[in-house]
From TrEMBL:
Pfam families: Hydrolase (PF00702)
Co-factor requirement: Mg(2+)
GO biological process assignments: small molecule metabolic process
Protein name according to UniProt: Uncharacterized protein
GO molecular function, one term: metal ion binding
Keyword rRNA-binding set for record: no
Source organism of this protein record: Candidatus Gottesmanbacteria bacterium RIFCSPLOWO2_01_FULL_49_10
Keyword set, alphabetical order: Hydrolase, Magnesium, Metal-binding
Length: 216
C-alpha cells in the first residue's frame, strides 16, 4: 500500500527512530524511579508500587505518571528524568536510517516526542541525522503536555496549516502515538511491529520499510 497525499511526516523519537531497545528502556524506567525518589524520599520498593498503580492504568505516558506522583508539571518531569540516563550510551550511527531520510528528502519532517528537545538533538547526532532534518520539534516543553494528549498534534496542525490527512504520524506505540493522531484525521503508521495493528493505516516491521509506502 502507498500513501498518496502526504506532505508532512511526524516522527515519534524513542523506539521509532531506533529499534525499541530493552536496555535503554530499562534505563529510562530507572530514571523515572529516581525522579520520584528524589522528590518524595520514598524507598525504591514504594516508588515502584506507586508507579505501577498509575502507569498504563490511569496515564499512558510514563513521564506524566511521574509528574502526577510528585506534583510537578509534565515538562519539568521530562527534563529531570533526562538527567538520569543518556540515550547516547545505547545507540550508534545508523546508515540505513540516514539512507531512509535521504530517500524521504522531498517530505517535511517534524518530531513529536515525550522527551526533551536538547537531548533529542544530541541523540540525532549519534544516529547520524542532522537536527536540521526536522523543521520543528514538539515536546511537553512546547505544549505543556505529553502524548497521548492531543495538544502536540494540534500544535503541529496549526503550524503547518495543512489538512490533517496530509500528515502521517509514525510511531511504535498505538495508544500513545497513533490513537490521538487518528482522532484528528492524521494518517498513522506503526513501526517495528510484526503484528499488524488493527487500528493503524499501515504496520511495518522496521522503520526502513517506510520508503516503500510513500511516493519518492
Ligand atoms: Mg516511542
Amino acid at each position: 500500500m502507498k500513501f498518496h497525499d502526504i506532505a508532512v511526516l511526524i516522527w515519534d523519537f524513542d523506539g521509532t527512530l531506533y529499534k525499541p531497545n530493552p536496555a535503554l528502556f530499562a534505563a529510562v524506567r530507572q530514571a523515572e524511579y529516581r525522579t520520584i525518589m528524589a522528590h518524595t524520599g520514598w524507598t525504591k520498593e514504594h516508588t515502584i508500587e506507586a508507579f505501577e498503580k498509575l502507569y498504563k492504568k490511569v496515564y499512558s505516558s510514563a513521564t506524566e505518571t511521574v509528574a502526577r506522583i510528585v506534583g510537578i508539571p509534565t515538562e519539568d518531569a521530562a527534563v529531570e528524568m533526562e538527567n538520569y540516563f543518556d540515550r547516547r550510551d545505547f545507540l550508534k550511527r545508523d546508515d540505513r536510517l540516514i539512507e531512509l531520510f535521504q530517500k524521504l528528502k522531498s517530505y517535511r519532517h517534524i518530531i513529536l516526542a515525550n522527551g526533551v528537545i536538547a537531548r533529542h538533538k544530541e541523540t540525532l547526532k549519534v544516529l547520524g541525522l542532522p537536527a536540521k532534518t526536522f523543521e520543528l520539534m514538539v515536546t511537553s516543553e512546547v505544549v505543556g503536555k505529553t502524548k497521548p494528549h492531543p495538544e502536540g498534534f494540534q500544535y503541529i496542525l496549526n503550524y503547518t496549516k495543512l489538512p490533517s490527512k496530509e500528515h502521517l504520524m509514525i510511531g511504535d506505540r498505538d495508544l500513545v502515538d497513533l490513537a490521538p493522531a487518528r482522532a484528528l484525521g492524521i494518517k498513522t503508521c506503526l513501526v517495528w511491529s510484526d503484528k499488524p495493528s488493527a487500528h493503524a493505516d499501515i504496520t511495518l516491521p522496521t522503520i526502513y520499510d517506510l520508503s516503500s509506502c510513500l511516493p519518492l
